[in-house]
Amino acid sequence: MRCRKSRGGARIWVGLLGALLLQRAAAAVNVCFDQSNPASSVDLRVARAALTAAGERRVQAVPFEGQGKGDDGFPVRRFARLAREQCDLIVGFPVDASDPHLPPQVLATPAYARTGFVWIGRSPLPAPAELPQGAVVGIAELDTWAALLFPAHPDWRMQAYPRDAELLAALRADVLKTGVIWQPYLVAEEKRSGARPLSFRRLEMPHLVWDLVALYAPGSHAAAERFARGLQTLEDRGRLAGLIAPYALPEQRSGSASPMRMRPDERRPAAGGLRPVRKRQRSGTAAPPALYTAQQAERGASAYAQHCALCHGTALEGRTGPALKGPGFADPASDFHVGDIFGFIARMMPAATPGSLPRETYVDLMAFLLQQNGYPAGTQALSYDQALQSRVPLIYHDPPAAP
Ligand code: HEC
User: Using CA atoms in the order 110, 216, 248, 185, what is the torsion angle rounded to 10 degrees?
Assistant: First the structure.
């Protein structure tokens, strides 16, 4: 129900989301879905049905690209902006059932379905406890949460596949007996391929069970309230289970909409748009790596003064743009990597003329930001591609005490 004029920040999104958003019907409820989430059609169906049940007929589905270039999905901090500027509801967001946390500055509706990582194999599926010593269990490399299974079973051997598709192929070819997979992926893949369904069951372990919710900004409270009311109506009429049937388990039907308790104030990484992202180990005390040279940082300092200081402050303290230094920026809880922030800067900054600077200048700026956040200079220069692909966590380190 909001009609918001695009402001500076919103302009940045236009390239990403396209003209579609500009044309949206002013009065419709905008339901954003992650178009890289293979199961988003289930989430959209739930949203449409719930809103309709609550008397809201103008529902507009708005896609966003939730899977970033890296494997970590959509940076959690972006959800607040997306919710504020483009969406009344963001459906399909997974919340860890054992440790519920939301991205900062958003709220969540009650959960409408429960999903997570499932134990999978050909029938008859052996229970985890029945596996022989040294059994091989497959996971897709991206699923670092799924890897939590292995510390509990030191006698298993983990076999990592580049992607879910390869893992499923190995299971179907009987090269592999058992594995762990993100259920929404399985749901979508079986529907698409028409392959004979594999057996699976949920892994009732901490961090492997996730509840699907819709996120919203405080300003969209009315839409969220209607969605929650509609969910309740669907449940009362026995219709919710059918809608979320793809997430149901063979042996156990579940997924009632139950209100969840969450601590939205805590800034912990919850998830990418598509699948949960593993919490990064807190490595704030480890010495930060040397990624750039002192010359790069020096050039970066002058480029910063020229192109960035106006909005981000001469001491990176933040003005119209956020602070680019300190624990508030390079916060361990935000689960940001050098590659994420570099990609953002190179594509989106300076805000008025995104992408306008030479590549080397962006690299120099990254070097300067690293320096300002406590990363030491080294002998090896940072390159554009390295910066873009860097998985080094971006965490503020207090500068070493002056000699
Ligand atoms: C015209 C004002 C303006 C200029 C100039 C500008 N920025 Fe920004 N910047 C913003 C605003 C506003 C945001 C927050 C909105 C957004 O992220 O879309 C932002 C966000 C950022 C972020 C993300 C911060 C976070 O915590 O998510 C980074 C990094 C950044 N800018 C770096 C730069 C760099 C480097 C330059 C210089 C090349 C620059 N900016 C120039 C306005 C500006």
Answer: -160
CA 67 / ligand 1 centre spacing (Å): 21
Question: 349 in ligand 1 pocket by Cβ < 6 Å?
Answer: yes
Does 82 contact ligand 1 (Cβ within 6 A)?
no
Average pLDDT estimate for 43-53: 94
Amino acid at 30: N
Closest CA to 88 of 49, 51, 45: 51
The finding on whether 352 has its CB within 6 A of some atom of ligand 1 is yes
Burial 223-248 (b: 16+ CB within 10 A, else e): bbebbbbbbbbbbeeeebbebbebbb
In 3D space, the residue among 8, 103, 60 whose CA is nearest the CA of residue 333 turns out to be: 103
| R_g of the chain computed on alpha carbons | 23
Q: Which of 69-73, 143-147, 337-341 has the lowest mean pLDDT?
A: 69-73
Once rounded to an integer, what is the mean pLDDT over residues 151-155?
A: 78
Q: For 58-88, how does the pLDDT look when each residue is reduced to its tens digit (9 = 90+)?
A: 999 999 887 643 334 466 778 888 999 999 9
